[in-house]
Amino acid sequence: MKVTAEDMGVLLLRVPAGLLLMGHGAQKLFGWFGGGGPEATGEMMTALGYPQGRLMGLAAGLGEFGSGAGIALGAATPLSSAGLITTMTNAAVSAHLSKGLWAQHGGFEYPLILATGAASLAVHGPGRLSVDAMLGCERKGLAWGLAALALGLGGAAAVLALRHRNTTTTSPAEPW
Questions:
Q1: Phi, psi of 66 (to 5 degrees)
Q2: Cα atoms in the Cβ-side hemisphere of radius 13 Å centred on 83
Q3: d(CA 174, CA 176)
């Protein structure tokens, strides 16, 4: 197989984004990379209005770590993309939306670009240098992208609906 510029382009998008998302999950799950681990993440989730903060923090960490791994490997790409969209939409709405767009002010720029990239990846597919392609189960196209977006936004809406509605917080600048 001859590796093309397109193969390399999608690989260069997938791997760093997936690994960085795994890192965010590891911060929540294990306290690695300067993260707070389950205790501090649970406290943050409670401050953001989520019930059972520790459990919700573990779910967010697992979502980020698992989706990040899937994105990096190009495995179960539409499902991995949906998981990334779910976690990043929750982060954008619960922790960043009130701070505006730009990341330097704690805004939702970073989760927005990751979620949009995930939707784009679901449309484009993970490319030939992926687990999906190696297993012959690559799923891509507009229908798969829209399905990932719908599943991701639906999952986010379900989790966001659990939050306490009258909670006002002063969350850390980089909680997710």
A1: -65, -45
A2: 23
A3: 6
At residue 66, the pLDDT reads 98
Rounded to whole angstroms, the Cα distance separating 64 from 21 reads: 6
Angle between helices 142-160 and 77-91 (to 10 degrees): 40
Burial 44-70 (b: 16+ CB within 10 A, else e): bbbbbbbeebbebbbbbbebbbbbbbb
What are 124-128's contacts with CB under 8 Å, separation 24+? Answer: 124/10, 125/10, 125/77, 126/10, 126/14, 126/74, 126/75, 126/77, 127/6, 127/7, 127/10, 127/11, 127/14, 127/74, 128/1, 128/3, 128/4, 128/7
Identify the pLDDT of residue 166: 52
Amino acid at 150: A
H or E element, residue 13 = helix 5-30
Beta-carbon contacts of residue 14 (< 8 Å; ≥ 6 apart): 71, 72, 74, 121, 126, 127, 130
SS3 130: coil
Q: What is the mean pLDDT of each run of 10 residues along the chain (176 residues)?
A: 93 96 97 96 96 96 97 98 97 95 94 96 96 96 97 97 68 49
Encoded tokens for 150:
């719908």
* Spatial contact of 24 and 15, defined as CB atoms under 8 Å apart: no
